[in-house]
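User: My advisor asked me to double-check a structure prediction for Biotin--[acetyl-CoA-carboxylase] ligase before group meeting. I don't want to rely on an old file, so could you generate it fresh from this sequence?
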Amino acid sequence: MSFDAHQLADALEFATVSYAESTESTNTDLLADADAGPWTVRITTNQTAGKGRLGRVWEAPAGANLAMSVLLTPTSLDRIGTIPLAAGLAVADAIGGTRLKWPNDVLLGEKKLCGILAEAGASATAPTAARVVVGWGINVALSEEQLPVPHATSLQIAGKTTDHTQIAADVLRNFHQRMQQWQDNDPQLLDDYRAACASIGARVRLETHSEAIEGTVDTVTDDGRISIDGNAFSAGDVSHLRRKDGNYS
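Assistant: Sure, here is a fresh prediction for Biotin--[acetyl-CoA-carboxylase] ligase from the sequence you gave:
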């Protein structure tokens, strides 16, 4: 299904939409754009050099994936670690039947539907100002044969809508609302995240850059860290998180 950038722009009164038929990385595009303002959205259905956390590659055939990024200019960095959680929650808000694997992988059933990467950079005109780019890679129209890994899935496989334009509009509208909660430091944001998080209550193996920990996930803290048997870890400290029962989530 073709993407309609004009329809998306009309649906998002708070955003500036920039569409590319093909690009290496929507995150990289926005970080390099010194003229981009808050809520500038870069979007494509053919991302050729997508990236995930810790340099992992995110691949999909042309037209099968929705890659989009949005530029934020938060006034405070105190709770910046919870922005990626809000980004994952926005997808769960938009797509029924989804849950979240901490910190922000979106699951459909026990399989990964969407990955999210947040990156920070300095402003060229105001080097001390924060510029945060949040990027989503959503598997929309991949077939079983096209899935990059066994623990992935797509909206098409699940029998859900594959209208790229509608999916983008729904996710971005929900993210805008969630970021208003973030700005207001509304506790409902993390309460809703915890309710959608499949990791809470699970027996897991967590790997940091120096050790491996096994235990039960107690909660996700107000600053976005995962707590395992009373010990909290930030996303930046964690290289892998897997359930002990073998499920991806």
